[in-house]
Design a protein that fits this description.
The protein is of the alpha/beta class. It contains twelve helices and eight strands. Helices cover 42% and strands 27% of the residues. Strands 1, 2, 3, 4, 5, 6, 7 and 8 form an eight-stranded mixed β-sheet that branches.
Length: 259
């Protein structure tokens, strides 16, 4: 099964959970995204990999038109029910791939993508496509979990995410994102990173992780080095992982003016 087929399978069967998930429905990162989005023209926003529709729902009151795009039809259906149930009538829903956006060039003044790029097999193509559909000086707001700069810690975090969720491709480092965005024609506006704690049981339940796999993942984590336990603030009680902490970021960039 390809990574994109995995995404459709995993998110299709868990769509309802993503609409109600506290980590997706709320959070300071969502509030920050809305505040940053207010610095744009506020005409047409594209929310890529909309998931449960929380970004599209939050920005609908401040934009003339919002387009919510997702690869998974079942997820779009739930997002539509959620957003329209909140009374928003200016949001359209499009099934599509983040790496091959089904839109003409330069049609959006703002693009957002929250807690999703770690599922994308080709983030170079994703960033190129965002650049293509944005107007000159358009705003791109990206939010995602990020890997530590130290390779050992990077490998640990990506391993446990992949073990929990086969549709996980890779969480990238801050330095990788900054380098990629600047190389593809964006200029930095700002970056904020923050700590994010996952409760182990809920984190596994989100993906319907089989008990056998959950046990193996628990054993792998509790056998980690002291340095890893300290870095990820892993809380272990009676040989069971209770929670751990990772880093996430909010990054805002603008498309460079064309010469």
């Amino acid at each position: 099964m390809s990574n994109k087929e995995n995404v459709i399978h995993q998110f299709g069967k868990n769509a309802r959970k993503y609409v109600t998930s506290e980590g997706h429905a709320k959070g300071k990162d969502l509030d920050m995204l809305v505040e940053i989005a207010k610095e744009s023209k506020k005409e047409k926003l594209l929310d890529i990999a909309t998931g449960g529709g929380h970004v599209a729902n939050a920005v609908a009151p401040i934009f003339e038109k919002v387009t919510a795009l997702d690869l998974t039809p079942g997820m779009l259906k739930k997002a539509k029910e959620f957003i329209e149930g909140n009374g928003h009538t200016n949001v359209s829903f499009v099934q599509g791939d983040a790496e091959s956006l089904p839109f003409p060039d330069k049609v959006f003044d703002t693009v957002s993508c929250r807690i999703a790029p770690h599922h994308f097999p080709n983030i170079d193509r994703f960033v190129i496509e965002v650049h293509r559909v944005l107007e000159a000086n358009g705003l791109f707001i990206l939010i995602d979990n990020i890997a530590p700069e130290l390779d050992e810690y990077d490998q640990f975090y990506n391993f446990i995410e992949k073990k929990r969720d086969p549709s996980h491709y890779r969480a990238y480092k801050k330095s990788e994102w900054i380098s990629l965005l600047e190389r593809k024609g964006f200029r930095m506006e700002g970056l904020t990173s923050f700590k994010k704690r996952f409760l182990f049981e809920a984190w596994c339940e989100m993906m319907d992780l089989p008990e056998k796999d959950k046990t193996e993942l628990n054993e792998f984590i509790i056998s980690s080095s002291e340095d890893l336990v300290k870095f990820f603030s892993i809380d272990i009680k009676d040989n069971d992982v209770q929670s751990f902490q990772v880093e996430a970021m909010v990054i805002a960039v603008r498309k460079e003016e064309e010469q």
